[in-house]
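User: hey, got a sec? need Oxidase folded
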Amino acid sequence: MDKKERWELTWVVFVLALFVIVGVATAPLDGNVGGVPQEISQIPPNAKVDNVLVTAYQYYFNLSEHGPDVNSVEEIGNTTNDFYYNILVAHPGDWMNLTMVAGPETATTNFFFPLYGDKITDVQIVPGLTGYAVFPVPNETGVYTFVNGEYDGPWFSYQEGNMIVIPTSGYSSPASISKYITTTHEAFTSALVGDPYNPRIYVENSTMSPNLYVVADDYNVLNGTIPGPTFVVKADSSISLNMYVPTPKGDHNYLYNYSTTGKAAPDKGIVAGIYAVWWNGTITPVETSNLTYNSHMEFTFNAKAPAYLYGVIYPVFYNYDLDGMSSTLTGEQMGYVMSLWGTIIVES
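Assistant: Yep! Here you go:
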């Protein structure tokens, strides 16, 4: 081997070593797509673990969660589901063990979750394969947002969810909420200090009769964020939430939907409301009403649960079928979209 060949070999070895170093240093704490869930070894021996089956659809996450203290039960209308739409419920310090699959006839999606004080969870959810991820639940109660980081159609940016971290009993302490707010605000100005996707936080804990306001724009975004803003209120306070949604118009609004005749019109029969999130993960309706456009809908309730959801907490069917021209041959654009919702955290 002459001098030139030795330099070439040295350069190749150096580049390969550099790839290995970078890969090890930046590897996220997540699973191997289609592989063995080796990441479960990251979980401490005596940790409480919530096992979650994540099924990705176009454009929402179906999350079935089961653990020692939390089980997914969601009551919507006359239906009781054993899964959540775009929601996780967790207790501080627990661990989440996620198995991820794609639903039928779904494009590749992604589960992206830059958690506080942890590496990024970033897993591709590929049809026909299984992805895995584990991560610890933050020690501070609050609302932490995960997103679909993969384009799978025009509404992919609406495919976002909240992990609601509540105590095992009682309500979130002022100290814990203060840390959560501080870290979230830092995340808005410094990348990945916390979760930069967390919604805005409105603190309404200085009164026992707070008035909360959420207003949707023409894109069905409440107060400029998906999910809608997170409110912090005092336990036992008497709350009034006012919600306004303008009449849908134009193809940029998923509630402006095409019927079987190919003509678009605003969706009807959508239910909005307030839902209690209990310590064991059960979600129950408190007050509901049919969504009315161009009208200020008002919901009133007393803060007894550790957290609440507000708005339309289930995905709404969307179908773009102009003049009935969509087909498997020409192409179809449909799915289930959910954006008019948010979370309320209750403080002691």
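Quick note: Residues 166 and 252 are 35 Å apart (CA to CA). Let me know if you need anything else on Oxidase.
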